[in-house]
Design a protein that fits this description.
Elements (H helix, E strand, L loop, with lengths): L2 E3 L6 E3 L9 H10 L5 H17 L2 H16 L5 H18 L3 H19 L2
Antiparallel strand pairs: 1-2
Length: 120
């Protein structure tokens, strides 16, 4: 029987086809790992589903956020400015420690920032 090298652990194994290129020992781990949604998919669902249902249209919500932030700081801040602050916050947190939730939030904020910029 032909032998292959596992792309996951590097071990040698007999040809096994359940997960191409992966040994039987690693197959379940690989299947479980890729069963999760990507952070892009998860962020898309949040921005367009749960969060929108909870907070309304993102552009309207960030416009209100900018008005409040302007009143608090005494400096004129745009919705894009406020969104960039949260993008920076998530990036700083991710530099300290990776958490999937922070990565999903970061992607969601980038999506909202893009919408704000494209709506101008």
């Amino acid at each position: 029987m032909p032998q292959d090298k596992c792309i996951w652990c590097g071990g040698i194994y007999q040809n096994y086809t359940e997960v191409k290129g992966v040994c039987p020992t690693c197959a379940n781990e690989v299947k479980e790992k890729f069963k999760e949604e990507s952070i892009l998919t998860e962020a898309h669902k949040l921005v367009n589903g749960d969060r929108q249902a909870e907070y309304g249209d993102p552009i309207a919500n960030w416009t209100e956020t900018a008005e409040i932030a302007t009143a608090i700081t005494g400096r004129i801040l745009s919705p894009a400015d406020c969104c960039l602050v949260l993008i920076a916050t998530k990036m700083a947190r991710l530099r300290h420690q990776y958490k999937r939730d922070s990565a999903v939030d970061l992607v969601g904020y980038v999506e909202i920032y893009s919408r704000i910029m494209e709506s101008r």
